[in-house]
Amino acid sequence: MNYGIVGFGTAGYHAVKAIREYDKTGRIVVYGNTGKAPYNPMLTTYYAYGKLTYKGMFPFGDLASIQKELDFTYKKEQVKKVHAGSMTVETEEGSERYDKLLISTGARAFAPPVKGLLPENALLMRTVEDAERFKERLGKKDVKSAIVIGASMVGIKVAEVLHKNGVETWLIDLAKCIFPLAAYPEVAAAIEERVEKQGLHLKFGATIDHMKVENGQQTAVLTDAAKIPADLVVLCIGTRAAVETVQGEVEIKRGIVVDDRLETSVKDIYAAGDCCEGKNLESGETQIIGLWANANRQGRAAGINMAGGDARFEGNILHNITHFMNMDFIGFGDNRIQGEVLECGSLEEGLYIRLVLQEGRIAGANIMDSYQISGIIKNYMLRLFSGERAVLPDYQRGMLIKAGLPAEFIDRIEEKING
Ligand SMILES: Cc1cc2nc3c(=O)[nH]c(=O)nc-3n(C[C@H](O)[C@H](O)[C@H](O)COP(=O)(O)OP(=O)(O)OC[C@H]3O[C@@H](n4cnc5c(N)ncnc54)[C@H](O)[C@@H]3O)c2cc1C
Q: Has this prediction a pTM greater than 0.70?
């Protein structure tokens, strides 16, 4: 059997690992455009900050040792096109046939051009190379002021690194508040207050219109005409799934559409990780849910299926867990859905939880400063979405109480859900 893996991030790695568990002798060819072992993009800001070594960004070790362990051929080549008809992968070097193929090309940071922004003063944040550029620039000590565009989980981490390096930093977004896709307005307001108290500047409802030099200083002119000095601009606006290798070959919406076996619309071509759309268990629609754990589980399930096994990835819900500026924020589900609100704790400090209930389910949850309870809450939400019984097992109830949730609050949730 000839297996092809296009893109070697965590999804590709987990697929290769699973294939080798099920098929000891098949030929696996991995096409990677980095020449490196898979890295964890979540760790890039920690490296830039100096909290992590370069090696620390590579959770599975170096390429040579992974190759030794899993026995595959690594081709440092950019895949240009997959031809489903002839079952071939095309690179600059030529074409090679596959029997089973995985597309695990991930996503790329996306940013529209900003007029007047000099390339040396613009940064993206996704790859190891982005992290190296960021670290190098900070090392020069010539950045006194900076703007981060995009009040997302990535944006806040980048802003934190700049702020902790003594840079006067503005986090700006066209949206009305921080974490617009995950936080409820009340929670967003509390987070904003906390980060501003620590010295980070925030501005919403505006973005950079253009850059100009004013009194010898690189200056951002915003869409509302405000001016902010900015030696550096970091663009954390969003990502785009990398789907061009299979454009016109398989069904693609925002990402490559897969079923719960991770197979695309074309037999024997699978997709996993940030390049694909799996099922959102809340909406029932397919959607890209770009998470590290998703990519791992999808890659593994795809690998098992490619090697003749039968594995399913049932889907996930929208999900954010972020630690930044001495706080934890956790957001689950769709924050646009309105419903009955149950809340407990204080937004000023310590444990806080806000649940929005709709039709006997938890449509969304925000949790502050207690990531310990997040797994139980997410698991409970998932069980409700799958129609399972709505009672928390005793040990989970005990863990919630131990973490600080009053028993009466847990009773109220169960009462509301069970009617
Ligand atoms: C700054 C940051 C913070 C994050 N924080 C979190 C977090 O807190 N929690 C969380 O769960 N997730 C987080 N994520 C998301 C998480 O990192 C991703 O979901 C996960 O890494 C996706 O893995 P992947 O294997 O699908 O893609 P990737 O890691 O993008 O790997 C894809 C690989 O394919 C290669 N490739 C692409 N095209 C080709 C081609 N044509 N030919 C050959 N190779 C190709 C790419 O170069 C890359 O090496 C964060 C991401 C970033 C950037």
A: yes
Distance 40 CA to ligand 1 centre (A): 7
- Which position has the token pair 């590709």? 12
For ligand 1, the distance from its centroid to the CA atom of residue 69, given in whole angstroms, is: 22
Distance of alpha carbon 337 from the chain centroid: 22
What contacts 304, CB < 8 A, 6 or more positions away? 18, 19, 21, 22, 310, 311
Which residue in 300, 312, 294, 299 sits closest to 378, CA to CA?
A: 294
**In ligand 1, which atom is closest to the CA atom of 91?**
42
Distance 107 CA to ligand 1 centre (A): 6
β-bridge mates for residue 228, sequence order: 220
Exposure string (b/e) for 45-68, b if CB count within 10 Å is 16 or more?
bbbbbeebeeeebbebeebeebee
Question: For residue 349, is pLDDT > 90?
Answer: no
CB 344 within 8 A of CB 405: yes
**β-strand pairing of 27-32 with 73-76:** parallel
Whole-angstrom Cα distance, residue 155 to residue 195?
Answer: 13
SS3 string of 31-100?
Answer: EECCCCCCCCHHHHHHHHHCCCCCHHHCCCCCHHHHHHHHCCEEEECCEEEEECCCCEEEECCEEEECCE
Measured from CB, residues less than 6 Å from any atom of ligand 1 are 6-12, 31-34, 41-42, 44-45, 78-79, 104-107, 125-126, 153-154, 242, 245, 273-274, 290-293, 295, 322
User: Do the Cβ atoms of 126 and 44 come closer than 8 Å?
Assistant: yes
Kind and range of the H or E run holding 6: strand 2-6
Tokens 């061009």, residue located: 244
User: Which tens digits make up the pLDDT trace of 59-76?
Assistant: 999 999 999 999 999 999
Cα dihedral value 208, 213, 214, 216, nearest 10: 140
pLDDT at 228 over 80: yes
pLDDT attached to residue 380: 94
Average pLDDT value for residue range 342-369 = 93
Share of the chain above pLDDT 70, in %: 100
